[in-house]
Amino acid sequence: ESWPLYVQLTNGKTFGCDFVVSATGVVPNTEPFLHGNTFALGDDGGLQVNEHMRTSEADVYAAGDVCTACWEHSPLWHQMRLWTQARQMGWYAARCMAAHALSEKIELDFCFELFSHITKFFNYKVVLLGKFNAQGLGSDHELLVRCTKGQEYVKVVIRGGRMVGAVLIGETDLEETFENLILNQMDLSPYGEDLLNPNIDIEDYFD
User: For the chain, which terminus, N or C, has the lower number of CB atoms within 10 Å?
Assistant: First the structure.
């Protein structure tokens, strides 16, 4: 069978495919800010920021891809250099600067309680929640998956009977319910695989 493209992996295997999506990651571009300054850098090279988005330099704040969040993270949040998170950080940094100027106290924003990202990919709605790829969980988790070809893909990450992450592709209408289940850390053990049973409207259970 002939394919438009072929990909050769480092193990020598070759696969035919229709197209290639390259995800190369993001490297913080801090170099323009380092000359003549003594910014503390994170392990990934980003400018270290505390829970108020302040760098190690006095009165200098950073947000988005250039920074590394160095506060103690919520168990359900992680930094991932995406435009949605950059926007949240920028908005929160502005609030922190205003609070500092007015000598007001400010708490870490709720958006840092749960990782979430919503976008579209090949015209499919994509929602990522929490530890959607079991980041940092090792083998201590299980996956529940539901897939309807051409319509939807649903993956849930369960740890200790509780939902800690999810991937939703397509018009699943599950994002609000799953977001609440992740935040509430409800014990879902009694439901087992019925959690993703398409014949059961789980919103009726958990709304």
Answer: N
